[in-house]
Design brief:
The longest helix has 46 residues. This protein has two helices and three strands. 44% of the residues lie in helices and 17% in strands.
Length: 135
């Protein structure tokens, strides 16, 4: 004859639901942490892109004052956007800047150029009509 425990024959499984719940909560915490990390990376990338774009526009607007004043203006704009200016080059009336944002593994750099329309040689995409009218 078998001995039956007081819990109705489930003596070996007692408390196993607690282990499963703890495991599920731990898994949800890991997934939540990963989602937060990806979200942080996206925010940092967008912050760097916005800062680079605005800094490039500011530098292009001040190109006539010289490279140093134009890049100083670009640096102030980048800092105001929560980023830092990594590189600033003025070539004629076109500015080329790189801004960085974030810290540690979430650091990202974005390059941006600005200048008057048509100042940069543009390559037409494949299959686009020739602007000169040739087929």
């Amino acid at each position: 004859m078998r001995a039956v425990s007081r819990a109705g024959g489930r003596g070996e499984d007692r408390g196993s639901a607690t282990v499963w719940v703890v495991g599920a909560v731990a898994l949800l915490c890991v997934v939540f942490g990963a989602v937060l990390a990806v979200g942080q990376a996206v925010v940092v990338r967008h912050r760097a892109a916005g800062a680079a774009d605005l800094a490039a526009l500011a530098a292009a607007d001040h190109w006539s004052e010289g490279t140093d004043p134009a890049c100083a203006t670009a640096g102030r704009i980048a800092r105001a956007q929560g980023a830092r200016l990594v590189r600033c080059v003025i070539e004629g009336d076109t500015s080329d800047v790189t801004a960085a944002s974030g810290r540690g593994p979430f650091t990202t750099e974005v390059r941006s150029r600005a200048g008057p329309v048509g100042s940069v040689d543009q390559v037409a995409p494949a299959g686009a009509p020739d602007p000169g009218g040739a087929p």
